Amino acid sequence: MSTVEEESDTVTVETVNSVTLTQDTDGNLILHCPQNEADEVDSEDSTEPPHKRLCLSEDDQSLDDNTPCISVVAVPISENDQSFEVTMTATTEVAEDEINEGTVTQIQILQNEQLDEISPMGNEEVSAVSQAWFTTKEDKDSLTNKGHKWKQGMWSKEEIDILMSNIERYLKARGIKDATEIIFEMSKDERKDFYRTIAWGLNRPLFAVYRRVLRMYDDRNHVGKYTPEEIEKLKELRIKHGNDWATIGAALGRSASSVKDRCRLMKDTCNTGKWTEKEEKRLAEVVHELTSTEPGDIVTQGVSWAAVAERVGTRSEKQCRSKWLNYLNWKQSGGTEWTKEDEINLILRIAELEVSDENDINWDLLAEGWSSVRSPQWLRSKWWTIKRQIANHKDVSFPVLIKGLKQLHENQKNNPGHQLSENKSGSGLPNTNSSSGVQHVQIRVARLEENAGNAPSPMAALQIPVQITHVSSTDSPAATVDSETITLNSGTLQTFEILPSFHLQPTGTPGTYLLQTSSSQGLPLTLTTSPTMTLTAAAAPASPEQIIVHALSPEHLLNTSDNVTVQCHTPSVIIRTVAAEDISSSVTQAELTVDSDIQSADLTDPPDTLETNTFPDDIHQSKLRDEEQSAYNEDDASELMDGVMVRTTEEISDASLKQEEDSHSDLPSTYVTEDLGSPTIEEQVDQPTIDDETVLIVPSSHGFIQTTDDIDSESVLPLTTLTDPILQHHGDGSHIIGSSLGSPDSEDSKDVEDLVSCH
DNA sequence: GAGTAAGGTAAGGGTAATCTTACTCC
DNA sequence: CGGAGTAAGATTACCCTTACCTTACT
């Protein structure tokens, strides 16, 4: 898949026919190369075993520009063991057909006695970009003319990982403990090739790598906010040393760039706070003057803010820029107010771009002709605000983020009656009494990516994309809402994405994961797999008092090839609530059994050992995400809300709920009720329903039924047919609880509210 | 001494996050 | 009137690129 450009004569290439792939908790694929195979390629008689590194190769041809880039980190298992582990991470989009057709047909082991002299990255493509210092325009033009492109902008986590890994390897190879020794203490000669070496696998100019490394290891960087004392001292030093930032920084214990940046904000003549009309007028005049534009013209680029600030006199360049781009430019040109519809439009437009990386968005283009957009920069900041509605937006892929936001806002659009503002007054949560203090937690099974034809391993069995949101039905739902997106790469054979939800972490018990919130909300949910999937909610002190579990619509799943869901693969689904004090001795509060005819995947199947030409999806996540997004685009948003809903609640005090309680006097501790705002159609045991969702409410005096209650099967809700479209699609499922949710959209809308308010 | 690679500095545009302020609602 | 909540505006620490300079090596 990628090869080494500079193969020296000392390099020999052997092909290994099979390796074992596993996956670590980060979703990285670990390739285990058996020692015997490694030995086979060890043809040299040298007393010291040759270094080996791994090379994924599509064929014998050299790389071209379209070659997908996979970062490979090869780590020897031990000094004496010729086995090694390789971590691979896909870094660019890979066409899935390439994957499925097995274009990666060989894994080559290269051996070289001076491996690190060739590449620390093993198989990384040697980017001409990363090996060029180029800071001059000529250098850039030269590379551009040769068809090279390189990454700019903020470093991604993947890039930093690669960089750190490279540095680590460099240090290890030379027995150096601390990178700062090299960076700050060694002479140029001593650290020869350091930057070139660690730049492998990074499509950034060497200079960018150099700057990044300096920042990373400079302990005078990231010191934080300047204290008033520091500011005073900085002023003195500035007078004394002028623009000698290195000296000032040294005296202040700050990096040169830090003091330089801070000084940019400090102008004796600078005002702070609200701009006066006079200042605004002056700023506008200066901007138009310096850009040779007329009042009313949109000016967002080509402004020398230092020059503007100089002329404005009372504000710094940053202040001028911010004021202009975020307000004045728009005001001057007669822009319109930004509305909620604009927000939805923004998400839709971004989604339409179908970019896999946020950096690929052309904000200038996006902002063009959009009267309520104040500037491309402002639009981007607006996007940032929207994005932050998802708590862990940083942890998810861009397509997934878009997908979640799109769904969220589409639902809002479709269900304006469930806006947060209405929630606030209680109308958005008709099933709960706003005075009850009841909190809701929603868990939505979102979507699953499956590598077709392969059964999951036990550890990979639970690949349940879930979306969890907390909603308080108190007056301030937003305050308690948390939501985030999970991406799970469980096992080697399946990849899936999870919409905004909680972190799912392995617990150490095979097949058991712990769902954790990123906030202090304390909602540990334990998911266990086979043969029955169990969702266990442990009631932490701050835990919510309602749990709602959704299963995806069957259409959503079955319209895709990766229709593996809990419902599809397990004979039953049990949803339990447990008291916080004893989560381990989980007590069934409600059991929802969902028979499924679908046995497309056996959760207990042992893990497969992959052939080298079998590429796991994980490597191609970006592609899958693209697919996922496109699949999503085809879905009706409401479909996502179809499915099973189980809810437990401590206090169900609203009238409608009480009504239902009355109607279910035969189920003293179990209530079947309508979904939020939806009429309820209760189903008797074993009665099929034709509803999209089933709701089960289990009251508990503590939000969760005490573990000591030890509810057995008798106390489990009576069976009824669950009319889950998923199940219907797969034949008739027998279900325990049935309750109609006449308006899935309304629930959908609530999800949206939850998400919107989660930040 | 010239050429070149590597390292370095300063300027300034930009981003992401927090802080502050103004406003609204009760 | 005042407190709480919220959104918008302001601020700022840090990031990144560009242009140009310096140093060391061949």
From TrEMBL:
Biased segments, Basic and acidic residues type: 617-628
Ranges of biased composition (kind: Acidic residues): 37-47
UniProt-listed InterPro entries: DMTF1_DNA-bind_reg (IPR051651), DMTF1_N (IPR046775), Homeodomain-like_sf (IPR009057), Myb_dom (IPR017930), SANT/Myb (IPR001005)
Matches recorded under Gene3D superfamilies: Homeodomain-like
Region (Disordered): 36-60, 411-438, 597-640, 653-674, 730-759
Regions of compositional bias (Polar residues) in chain numbering: 413-438
GO MF annotation terms: DNA-binding transcription factor activity, RNA polymerase II-specific; RNA polymerase II cis-regulatory region sequence-specific DNA binding
Organism: Phoenicopterus ruber ruber
Protein name as catalogued: Cyclin-D-binding Myb-like transcription factor 1
Domain HTH myb-type: residue ranges: 267-332
Broad class of where this protein is predominantly found: nucleus
Gene Ontology cellular-component terms listed: nucleus
Family, similarity comment: Belongs to the DMTF1 family.
Annotated localization: Nucleus
